[in-house]
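Q: I'm building a small set of examples for a reading group on sequence design. Run inverse folding on the following structure and report the sequence directly after it, with nothing in between.
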C-alpha cells in the first residue's frame, strides 16, 4: 500500500478523527455489527455500485479503507482512497498493497480530468463547507457517464442544533424549526461535539443539477427492526448520480 502525505498546511487537514479519544470511540463504533454504517449505509453503497471489475475508482473520505478493500476484492483496476485524518491513513497501512491512500482534504485534493469510472463518498460530504466546489471537481474527474455514489446525514437530521447551556445541560432544538437555516452545526456523537454543515434536500438537488449530474437513485435510509417511535425519521440519505 502506498501512503502519500500531503505537504500542504496540515492544520487545514486536522479533524476530530485525529483526536485520540474520538478515534478510539469511532473504532469501537465501526466494529459494532449494528452500526448505521454496517446495517444500512454500506449495504446501499455496495448494492448500487455499477460493475466494479476493471474500473478505476476514487473513494473520498476512505476512513479505515474497508470500501477500498471491498473493491479490490471485486477486481477493480485501481482504487484511490482520500482521507484528511492521519490516524485513518495510518490505520489503513496494512491493507491490500494495490490500494493507494492519499492524506488530503476533499476540497484540496487534485486529480486529472476523466480519471475515474466511479467516485464514492461514505458519510463525508456533510463535513465540507464548499460542496459546490467539490461536485464541480468530481464532475471533471469522472469519465463520460461515470457514477458518483454518496451518502450524507439526512437533511432533517442535520438541521438540529445541539448546544450546552450555562448549567451544562444539553439542549436539542427542533429540526423542523431550523430546517431552512443552512450552515454550520455541532452535533454530539460518540460523546464528542462534531462540526458539520447542514443543507436542505433542495440544496443538494440544486448542486447536483448545477454540476452536470443526473439523479439515478435517491434513498432515505432508516434503521431496520426498531420500534416505530424510534424509526419514524431517516438519519441518512443516499444518492446515485450519473455524469451527463
Amino acid at each position: 500500500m502506498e501512503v502519500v502525505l500531503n505537504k500542504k498546511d496540515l492544520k487545514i487537514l486536522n479533524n476530530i478523527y485525529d483526536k485520540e479519544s474520538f478515534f478510539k470511540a469511532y473504532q469501537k463504533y465501526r466494529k459494532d455489527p449494528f452500526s448505521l454504517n454496517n446495517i444500512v449505509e454500506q449495504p446501499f453503497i455496495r448494492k448500487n455500485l455499477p460493475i466494479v471489475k476493471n474500473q478505476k475508482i476514487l473513494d473520498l473520505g476512505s476512513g479505515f479503507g474497508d470500501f477500498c478493500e471491498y473493491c479490490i476484492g471485486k477486481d477493480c483496476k485501481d482504487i484511490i482512497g482520500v482521507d484528511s485524518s492521519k490516524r485513518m491513513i495510518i490505520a489503513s497501512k496494512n491493507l491490500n498493497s494495490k490500494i493507494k491512500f492519499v492524506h488530503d482534504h476533499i476540497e484540496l485534493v487534485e486529480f486529472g480530468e476523466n480519471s475515474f469510472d466511479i467516485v464514492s463518498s461514505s458519510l463525508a460530504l456533510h463535513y465540507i463547507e464548499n460542496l459546490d466546489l467539490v461536485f464541480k471537481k468530481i464532475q471533471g474527474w469522472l469519465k463520460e457517464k461515470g457514477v458518483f455514489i454518496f451518502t450524507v446525514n439526512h437533511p432533517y437530521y442535520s438541521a438540529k442544533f445541539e448546544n450546552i447551556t450555562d448549567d451544562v445541560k444539553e439542549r436539542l432544538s427542533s429540526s423542523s424549526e431550523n430546517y431552512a437555516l443552512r450552515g454550520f452545526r455541532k452535533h454530539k456523537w460518540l460523546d464528542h461535539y462534531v462540526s458539520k454543515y447542514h443543507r436542505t434536500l433542495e440544496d443538494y438537488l440544486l448542486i447536483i443539477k448545477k454540476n452536470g449530474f443526473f439523479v439515478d437513485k435517491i434513498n432515505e435510509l432508516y434503521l431496520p427492526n426498531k420500534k416505530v417511535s424510534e424509526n419514524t425519521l431517516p438519519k441518512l440519505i443516499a444518492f446515485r448520480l450519473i455524469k451527463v
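Residues 7-14, 164-172 have pLDDT under 50 and may be disordered.
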